[in-house]
Amino acid sequence: MHPTRNxxxxxxxxxxxxxxxxxxxxxVDLQTQLKQAHWNVKGPTFIALHELFDTVxxxxxxxxxxxxxxIVQLGGTALGTARIAAKHSRLDxxxxxxxxxxxxxxxxxxxxxxFGARVRAGIDAADKAGDKDAADICTEISLGVDKHLxxxxxxxxxxx
Length: 160
Prior knowledge:
The chain is mostly helical. It has five helices and no strands.
């Protein structure tokens, strides 16, 4: 850990850096999966999904930044390279053969819901570690993930 005047205990800072290191790997993987979907989606809903996936990828990029910056604020080192993310991400591998819009919608929904569950678990873990700010960061990200999951899933739901 790097020295800091942050008044959280070294134990708290270390626990949150570990937690956020895992979330950072997941978030980097999520962002690249969203770009994979954005670039490769096909079908009659192409433009809507192409734009939606790009919007969510942009949001994910913001989540990456907030997570990484919290790690550094606490005296840690943000490890956010593609190789680190590939090695440590807990998301399922993106189905590279996906072409149809419904295949991409399903894959993106799975990735978002998995990431959302990890972030939601991070709320309690950060709070238990004693960092309410980190818990708030997880809450904010969780709200965004849920919103975008709703948008994505709406493309796979049938009309009543």
